[in-house]
Amino acid sequence: MTETQTTPPMPFDDELLTRLRQSQHLVVFTGAGVSRESGIPTFRDALTGLWSQYEPEDLAMPDAFVRDPSLVWGWYEWRRALVARCEPNPAHLTIAALANRVPKLTLITQNVDGLHARAGSPDVLELHGSLERPRCFDCGTHCPPDAPMATDDQQRIEPPTCVQCGGFIRPGVVWFGEALPVDVWHRAKRAAQACDLMLSVGTSGLVYPAASLPKEAVFQQIPVVQINPEPTALDETMWHNLHGEAGVVLPSLLKSAWPDF
Ligand code: BJW
Ligand code: ZN
């Protein structure tokens, strides 16, 4: 089932282009790789990834926040400041424009950086929350985000406190061991089961339950096309693996499907 294409040059498979043009409900499922060309590190890159200096369990778990709130809050403020300096790249922009070419597009992202929305994509299903929706760790009250206050060196910063209960404010993201937002998850799962084509872009496919979405589509015999410069845990189950950077492959793919794109 798996077919591999190397880019560039990119003469894409005719059946793939036809499926894309005829799609009535396309799902685009994205991960950190889609924001890499905007200058935001991925998580698992050994040298430059967000976790290259820390273990994930030191930063992306509730226990880590309880143990050292200032370390965790400072790390997220550093990331928020980085994201504020970055712009959507051709991958985000192409996905936003694609919504005008197909009758229905559901965009599901694991990213918390908000770059899809900034590129013009409406109704993004954010499986892992958002850097811009902080809330109280204790009572859940939402707290409007301030401008990010971090410097470049990922210093510790004491989190603000909740106006309701005095608890620490935490980032509005989904950490390991936490449930995904229920409504978002159900909508994503339904789309993965009901679409007629899925593009899985820039994710290692290692984190569950998000990584079950492309597998769910494959289980329903829906073709899934992966775009990633590196092999991933999902390679074997894909209909096509397009090896290359999202900001290069996606515009090229869509230009091949619609020459006026
Ligand atoms: C490019 C590119 C370019 C580079 N173009 N591509 C089943 C089996 C085993 C374990 C589990 C399981 N089910 C659940 C678990 C546990 C756990 C889990 O999955 N662990 C695994 C590590 C094994 N999952 C959870 O804990 C989840 N919760 C849960 O299951 O709750 C159960 C529950 C139910 C009911 C009540 C209570 C609990 C929650 C998972 C939350 C994940 N959160 C994070 C952090 C978010 C906040 C933050 O940003 O800090 O989400 S972890 C991190 O990984 C982040 C990402 O969204 C996520 C996925 O990473 P992603 O996007 O794939 O990035 P990378 O870095 O891994 O890959 C980047 C890719 O891009 C690479 O492939 C590159 O090659 C590629 N690339 N340049 C295209 N230019
Ligand atoms: Zn509170």
From TrEMBL:
Uppermost EC category: transferase
Active site: H128 (proton acceptor)
Positions of substrate binding: Y76, R79
Obligatory cofactor(s): Zn(2+)
Keywords annotated in UniProt: Cytoplasm, Metal-binding, NAD, Transferase, Zinc
MF-aspect GO terms: histone deacetylase activity, NAD-dependent; NAD+ binding; protein-malonyllysine demalonylase activity; protein-succinyllysine desuccinylase activity; zinc ion binding
Record lineage: Bacteria, Pseudomonadati, Pseudomonadota, Gammaproteobacteria, Chromatiales
Organism: Thiorhodovibrio frisius
Residues holding NAD(+): Q110, N111, V112, D113, G202, T203, S204, N228, P229, E230, A246
Family designation: Belongs to the sirtuin family. Class III subfamily.
Domain comment in the entry: 2 residues (Tyr-76 and Arg-79) present in a large hydrophobic pocket are probably involved in substrate specificity. They are important for desuccinylation activity, but dispensable for deacetylation activity.
Gene behind this protein: cobB
Cofactor binding comment, as recorded: Binds 1 zinc ion per subunit.
Enzyme nomenclature, EC number: 2.3.1.286
Cellular localization per UniProt: Cytoplasm
UniProt catalytic activity: N(6)-succinyl-L-lysyl-[protein] + NAD(+) + H2O = 2''-O-succinyl-ADP-D-ribose + nicotinamide + L-lysyl-[protein]; N(6)-acetyl-L-lysyl-[protein] + NAD(+) + H2O = 2''-O-acetyl-ADP-D-ribose + nicotinamide + L-lysyl-[protein]
InterPro entries assigned to the protein according to its UniProt record, in alphabetical order: DHS-like_NAD/FAD-binding_dom, NAD-dep_sirtuin_deacylases, Sirtuin, Sirtuin_cat_small_dom_sf, Sirtuin_class_III, Ssirtuin_cat_dom
Domain of life: Bacteria
Role of this protein: NAD-dependent lysine deacetylase and desuccinylase that specifically removes acetyl and succinyl groups on target proteins. Modulates the activities of several proteins which are inactive in their acylated form.
Record-given protein name: NAD-dependent protein deacylase
A GO CC term assigned to this protein in UniProt: cytoplasm
